[in-house]
Amino acid sequence: MKGRFIALTLAVAMTCACTSNQYLIEPEAPVDHSAVKDTVYVLNPEQAEQFSVLQQSGIYVISTDATTNKKLKLTGMYGEKLCGMPFLGAVVFLGLLPVSVEKDYRFTYEIQQGERRQAYLHNIPVKLRMSVWEWLATPFASTEDELLIEGLPLYERQPTTDSPGF
């Protein structure tokens, strides 16, 4: 009986010791934003987290002049919700075998030029890996924002029809 208790305690302790890291999935052919960067005026810089990611990514030249031809409105930045089922493997194997799941982050905004408005989306795939060994691994980006800053220039913007308006 005492042996079972010790084994159960050890199993629970190892499972609790699991941690996860996120890694950017690099595209086969990254986008080159260095040729021509649009200059934009951001209409809602009070969305501090999303504005900071946009600014640090360097995909646009941010202007403080409100008369700039192109106006950009930040509309959202969010990560995909994950089902916990894949992580059941980490529990079954006490975290000794790493479990990986892909997840997408979405960065959305609208650009208005004159009367023309277009919504854009950057879809940034990330691999989430969980095991007891992840304590030993240090990812290159330690926060979700750092992953987005690193990933935005690598993935091309995609026009979307979702347009909340200005």
Structure notes:
The chain has 166 residues and is of the alpha/beta class. It has one domain. The chain contains four helices and seven strands. Strands 1, 2, 3, 4, 5, 6 and 7 form a seven-stranded mixed sheet that branches. Strand 2, helix 2 (48-57) and strand 3 form a beta-alpha-beta unit. It is elongated. The chain starts with a helix and ends in a 6-residue tail after the last strand.
In short:
The chain has 166 residues and is α/β, with parallel strands linked by helices. The chain has four helices and seven strands.
Percent in helix: 10-25%
Order of helices and strands: HEEHEEHEEHE
Shape: elongated
- Seen as an oligomer or otherwise, the chain set is single chain
The number of helical runs is 4
Please state the average pLDDT score.
82
Q: Sketch the major β-sheet.
A: 7 strands, mixed
Secondary-structure content class: alpha/beta
Main features:
single chain, 166 residues, alpha/beta, 7-stranded mixed sheet, 4 helices, 7 strands
